[in-house]
Design a protein that fits this description.
alpha+beta, three-stranded antiparallel β-sheet, 7 strands, 29% helix
Length: 212
Amino acid sequence: MRALFSEVTCRGVVAPGACERKVGDRIGDLACAVLGSAACRPRRTVRSGPNSVLPYGQEPSAGRAIGTDDVVVVELGPVLAGYEACFARTVVLGDDPETHRLLEDLPEVFAAAREAFRKDRGITGRRLHAEVPALAAKAGWALGGWHVGHFVGTPAVANSLDARPDAYLGPDDSQPLRRTTEDGWQAHWVLEIHLVDENRFTGSYKDLLVLA
């Protein structure tokens, strides 16, 4: 996924004036070149500007043209259908210092949350979920979404009412994250950082909690 995102950025695939659908198609082409037969062409990999702040499940028109000063969220996990490859990064266009500050803060908040996980051997989803908003606020941002990650292989849901509490890094997960699953496997988690500025723009940084 990192190699694919590197190709996306190096080739300037995310560019002002290009529509989200066309950018998604180009990412699909690159995915096939980089990942081979494992790659597929998902319905949506790119959200820009106001589309990036829409809640999960609300699908905007994919024909929106990317603006000259947009924040663009690139979701690459879906290009590996059938695999757990949750991966999202953010691209910032233009010279707005606030959006560039967002770009710098995303990996830092992710790293700080991951460090909190590493330091506390008994940390629960509830405790990690409480840690991340504090880290976001310290950096000057609000946190988007009702959870900060999920158990590997868990399908995305729009709200906590539809979720199994112990499968998400949210306020209702009281179980330790380091545990053995019902199938006897070590539990693995995806950490999601969504930083929001008064709903004007949002950025995302998503990766495996331990391996990132």
